[in-house]
Amino acid sequence: MHRTKVRVVEDALDANNTIAQANRADFDREHVTVINLMSAPGAGKTTLLERALDGIAEEGTRIGVLEGDVQGSFDADRLAVLNIPVVQLNTDNGFGGECHLDANMVRSALPGVPLPEMDVLIVENVGNLVCPAEFRIGEDARIMVCSVTEGEDKPLKYPLMFRACELVVINKIDLLQYLEFDVDRLEANILQVNPQATVMRTSAKTGEGIDAFRAWLKAQPTRFFEDDDHEHEHGEHTHTHSHGAHSHSHEHADHDHEHAPA
Ligand code: MG
Ligand code: ZN
Fold first, then answer.
1. Of the residues 171, 200, 234, 243, which has the fewest C-beta atoms closer than 10 A?
2. pTM for this predicted structure
C-alpha cells in the first residue's frame, strides 16, 4: 500500500515536469526570465514586490507579475497601480483551492500573460512553506522570502524550501529591535541547508535592502539571455524529484540528467 502511494506521487510529479517544460519552452521563445517567488503566508512577498517594482518600469526593466492566491485579487490589485502587467491566478478557480501553484495552473494562466511585453515574469506563489517547493513551474530561478517573525529554526524544519531556491530574502528586519530574534543564526541555518544561497536582508517597510533586491531582479535577464544571437538551450533543467532538494543550474542545460535514487 505504501508503495502504491509513492508511485502515485512520482507520476504526479512527472506529469508536472512535462508541463513545466512546455511552460519553459514558451518562456524561452519570448525570452522571458521567470522567477518563482515563495514564502509562508504573511512573510511579505507582495509588499516586497510593491516596494521593489515601484518605478522599475520607468528605469527600463520590463517586469510582469503572475499573482497566485487561493482566492481574491487583493495582491494583484495592490501591484496593478505600479503600471506593470499583473495577472491574477486563483487556485480555487478550477484547481480545488490548492495551497501551491503547479505547472498546469501556470500554463492555464499563460494565455492571459502578455509575455512579449516583459523580460522578467515574477510568479508570486501561494503562501506555503511546504508544497510550492515540490512543483516546478518552468522557472529559471526561485526566491524564498522568510521574515524575522517566523523563527530562526525554519530552514532546519523546512529544508526543501530553503534548498530549492537561489536567493533567500530575510524580510521585516525593521522589527528586529522589538524581537528577541537572532538574525545571524537564521542566516547560518539558511546557509547550512543551502550553502549556495544568496541571502539578503530587507525591510519592505523602511526600504532597507530593497536596492540590492531590485538589483538582483534586474540582473536576471542578462544571466539567462545574455545575447540574442546566441542559441539558448535550457530545456532540460526543470526537474522535481519526490525526494526533493535538487536544483539544477542552466549551465548544464543541454543533456539528459540521470539521477540515481537517493
Ligand atoms: Mg501576496
Ligand atoms: Zn499545496
1. 243
2. 0.83
